[in-house]
């Protein structure tokens, strides 16, 4: 992961995905970081889906892909804290679902428990990533899931599926903007798990496990924040 400090300014502006597209050596190192050849398919999908970037790059992107422990650009830290906020919401949602006792089906309850544990681990991992990169983790929001819980098991499952599909799309939507390789590795590893959660929950409510077809569709940050706003009190 060590990079030369003599790169030209135009090279420093490249996203991590741009570097992976253009440099086989970087690709090889990256795949080892995220789990070897098993991650190759997911990386290919990310590269295909993120061929264009429809969000404006931050003016702070010149600190781009730095080595392990060397910090990250302001934009990368913003992206990780955005992801952390979404994971806070998901983790809190599943904990409230489990505490409510509204899920009566044993198999569904087991799925909710496993996903809840995954989301808690995502929170811990993203918090550690922000701190390692020299930033301050986002504040955990106060959530509002009362109406979902009041709707019973069917409403809970439908909401869970929507949230997981949105989460997967949110990670995909930021992949092309990330400058730091370690941040991209974290995003890729969590994105694939969110997509698996979504597939299981889609099946549980009778939807296709691949609602977007063969290639997932990304969602931009403003769209995602607008959709989760009803679940945030403060």
Describe this structure in words.
With 234 residues, this protein is mainly α. It has one domain (9-231): Up-down Bundle (Ferritin), CATH 1.20.1260.10. Helices cover 63% and strands 0% of the residues. The protein is built from ten helices and no strands. Helix 5 runs antiparallel to helix 6. The termini are far apart. The relative contact order is 0.17. Mean pLDDT is 80; it is low at 1-12, 36-49 and 51-71.
Assign a percent range to the helix content: 55-70%
Query: Outline, from the CA principal axes?
Result: globular
Number of strands: 0
Runs in which pLDDT lies below 50 for 5 or more consecutive residues are: 1-12, 36-49, 51-71
Radius of gyration: 18 Å
Q: Main β-sheet, in a few words?
A: none
CATH class: Mainly Alpha
Terminal-residue CA separation: 39 Å
CATH superfamily: Ferritin, core subunit, four-helix bundle
Q: Can you count the helices?
A: 10
Q: By helix and strand content, what is the structural category?
A: mainly alpha
Oligomer state equals single chain
Overall tally of domains: 1
- CATH fold category name: Ferritin
Question: What fraction of the residues are assigned to beta strands by DSSP?
Answer: under 5%
């Amino acid at each position: 992961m060590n990079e030369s400090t003599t790169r030209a300014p135009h090279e420093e502006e490249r996203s991590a995905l741009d570097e992976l597209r253009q440099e086989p050596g970087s690709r090889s190192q990256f795949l080892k970081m995220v789990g070897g050849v098993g991650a190759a398919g997911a990386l290919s999908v990310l590269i295909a889906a993120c061929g264009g970037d429809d969000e404006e790059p931050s003016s702070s992107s010149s600190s781009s892909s730095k080595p392990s422990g060397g910090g990250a650009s302001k934009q990368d830290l913003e992206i990780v804290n955005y992801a952390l906020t979404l994971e806070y919401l998901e983790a809190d949602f599943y904990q409230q679902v489990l505490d409510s006792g509204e899920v009566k089906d044993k198999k569904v309850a087991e799925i909710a428990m496993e996903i809840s544990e995954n989301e808690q681990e995502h929170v811990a991992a993203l918090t550690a990533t922000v701190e390692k990169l020299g930033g301050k983790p986002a504040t955990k929001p106060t959530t509002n899931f009362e109406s979902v819980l009041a709707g019973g098991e069917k409403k809970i499952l439908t909401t869970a599926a929507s949230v997981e599909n949105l989460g997967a799309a949110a990670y995909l939507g930021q992949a092309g903007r990330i400058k730091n390789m370690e941040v991209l590795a974290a995003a890729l590893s969590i994105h694939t798990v969110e997509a698996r959660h979504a597939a299981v929950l889609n099946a549980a409510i009778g939807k296709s496990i691949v609602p977007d077809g063969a290639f997932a569709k990304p969602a931009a940050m403003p769209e995602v924040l607008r959709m989760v706003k009803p679940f945030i009190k403060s």
